[in-house]
Design brief:
Elements lengths: L1 H20 L8 H8 L3 H7 L2 H12 L3 H16 L3 H18 L8 H12 L2
Helix pairs in contact: 1-4, 2-3, 5-6, 6-7
């Protein structure tokens, strides 16, 4: 019994949360979830706490990396087509990303951004 609890705590909690956060998991029974995790249903019931459900719901609401990539690609395509608003969003997003990786002094200035926007407008 102690061994099963230790195994659950070692990594199954994360697996449980990931499984509950996955699309379509709301259609799984507790027995199916327990089987996928390789634990007894009683063990699963002990670990289905409010904290686990809350974390699974939080993760379910977050956009996935693939969804964000699709949005980024669509914005870039719009910017290339001459949509100035999309271009500003793209450059704003680039500034956010750059700010995480370099110092503020290394970011492009207002004049450089305006020049890039002018290039996008002329396409």
């Amino acid at each position: 019994m102690v061994r099963k609890l230790l195994r659950f705590h070692e990594g199954r909690r994360e697996q449980l949360i990931d499984l509950l956060a996955a699309p379509g998991s709301e259609f799984l029974s507790k027995a199916e979830i327990a089987a996928r995790l390789g634990v007894h249903i009683c063990t699963l019931r002990r670990h289905l706490t409010q904290e686990v459900w809350a974390e699974a719901l939080r993760r379910r609401e977050l956009p996935t990396e693939d969804e964000l990539r699709q949005v980024d690609r669509a914005m870039i395509a719009e910017a290339k087509a001459g949509n100035v608003g999309a271009a500003r969003l793209v450059y704003g997003r680039l500034q956010e990303i750059a700010a995480r990786h370099v110092g503020e002094d290394d970011l492009p200035g207002e004049a450089e951004l305006e020049e890039a926007l002018a290039l996008v407008r002329n396409r």
